[in-house]
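We emphasize that the prediction below concerns an isolated chain of 492 residues; any contacts that depend on oligomerization or on bound cofactors are therefore not represented. The input was used exactly as deposited, without trimming of termini.
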Amino acid sequence: MMNKIEEAIIYATIMHQGKVRKLGNTPYILHPLEVAQILSTMTDDQDVITAGILHDVVEDTDGTIREIGKRFGERVAFLVASESENAYPEESRSESWKKRKEESIRVLKNADDQGVRMLWLADKLANIRSLAGSYSENGEKIWESFHQHDPEMHHWYYRTIAEQLELSLNKTGAFKELIKHINYIWPGTFNSEKVQYRKYREVSVEGCRRIGRGAKGDVYRYDDELVIKVYNQNNTYSDVEREIAMARRAFVLGIPTAISFGIVSVGDQYGAMYELVDSDTVSGCIMCNPGQVETYAKMMAQLAHTIHGTHVTAEDGFPGALDRIRDYIEGGIGKEDDALAKKVMALIEPLEDAGTLLHGDFHTGNVFLQNGELLLIDMDRLATGHPILELGDLYYFYVILGEDNPSVVERFMGFSYETACRFMHLFLKHYLGTEDEGRIREVSEKASLIGYSRLIRKIRKQRKPADTDHMLVRRCVERIADLTDTLDTLVF
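Result of the prediction step, given as a token string:
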């Protein structure tokens, strides 16, 4: 009786019969067999090797995921689906190239099954072997034979995939060979160390107290001296390195910043370790001492002044924060009400200020209190712009996120929504240096315009927004419309 792999070889041979590879003009079946061979160097999992043999059946023949599931099992079908791009028959392959690649990369980023990552690695290695061979013979002419003629787009695609695979598969010979071929076609893409054996220090946060959470990951107290920030799976090693480099640049500028002393692996995610003895996040301090919220609000306001009082030049290389806000408008309000989006954009455009430093993710979960001193983490969004952009993010975190469901803020910050709103008010009081409630309300309204725009964008990015989300978007749009009728500037 044939096993699953043998049956898959016969099935794939029949399905690919008569087809040849674009590069080399060899029978197509040789490619899936090569993928299976590469997989066999990483695993003896029959489902994964079978998926390697079948990975192009759906995309390049009239075979279906349903048929594969019926003949070879649901996991094999799932793995094959992870490697099968949407067809977009209404567009040419050239027109849909980038969209198809971006969608498939999102599948890889969100994969929980290690088999998906191994399948991707084996397929891309087999492809780039052929690509590198042709490149050595024909040079840049090879790109003319592809639907995508721009070599830099292929560079982006292979580099992104390698970054996603690095943590879980960096010890395999297949990964190191992939890096070698990428560096051959696009010299200098990766540090030469990546083709050598590298073992990250492996740690576990099981049983550790989570002391902070954010969009990029969670922060844990590892022991009395160490804190670990565990990045979510969408973050690559390069992302972590970039954030640490940004933190060092901020430190040199005089920003009180916690500097990571090492990158570790936490399961299949990256972590950054910090030495923060006898410290806690400001969120944790407020949670334990809500009656002292004004003390912490005042300290945070002083820290914000330190950041916003730091002036940088274009040579310092920080991006402009306004690009992110434009994305909120174009991808959020702009999809709901184009005329309103233009009114908001008219208020946003005058805020360009390349000289003022912004943290970009400034909230009490990203600030540690150590021996009476505040230290910032999560530095990857450092940018320049008008301070109202930072205040808009604060208002989003502490007020807007909890208006319909206070528990959202309570889970994020660790203290009550009532305390969060009080913190925001007291922060503005000390940041602005005023007891004038009218002045505080004026700046709050300006900040809320940024915050409501961000919330709409967040909801629009969801795959399947619920009915309650659509209702929330409508309410945000109405609130923004009211604000644009009364505000003539966001500058304060």
